[in-house]
Design brief:
146 residues, 5 helices, Cytidine Deaminase, domain 2, binds tetrahydrodeoxyuridine
Length: 146
């Protein structure tokens, strides 16, 4: 985890580098598909993660979720952006499960997709998860049924 003073703004490049380092620690024993991720909290801290696979394949955890769980468990409640990096020419997007969880816990933040060649693309979470099912949806439905 790193922290910048309020004046200093972490560049996309620095966050991408943090995710690239985390990717090196991936435990991708079965797929050999290594993914790194990094999030920036509202106060400028960077949290990173990598994918971790299990011999019971379905227990595998994506890099994005490892990263978000780390940040949430350290008390982060507001996020600025997330980076996902893999060694693919077509930039790797978050899987469906991660889209749901990024939306629920981070909201409509920018998602920076990156690869090891230096290609990047930034998408908003709302583009990646249109018509989300979330707490707001449940609340609105509750209100309607009162
Ligand atoms: N994976 C991630 O960590 N993030 C993604 O965005 C896509 C997929 C992981 C899960 C699994 O360990 C491997 O990549 C192959 O699916």
């Amino acid at each position: 985890m790193s922290r910048h003073s309020e004046q200093e703004i972490t560049s996309d490049q620095e966050i991408i580098e943090a995710a690239t380092e985390a990717r090196k620690r991936a435990r991708a024993t079965y797929s050999n598909f290594r993914v790194g991720a990094a999030v920036e909290s509202e106060d400028g801290r960077i949290y990173t993660g990598c994918n971790i696979e299990s011999a019971a394949y379905e227990l595998t955890m994506c890099a994005e979720r490892v990263t978000i769980w780390k940040a949430l468990s350290e008390g982060v409640r507001k996020f600025r952006r997330i980076v996902v990096i893999a060694d693919t020419s077509r930039l790797t997007p978050p899987c469906g499960a991660c889209r749901q969880l990024i939306w629920e816990f981070c909201g409509d933040i920018p998602v920076i997709l990156a690869n090891l060649r230096g290609d990047t693309e930034t998408l908003q979470m709302a583009e990646l998860l249109p018509r989300p099912f979330d707490a707001k949806f449940l609340e609105e439905n509750d209100a309607e049924n009162k």
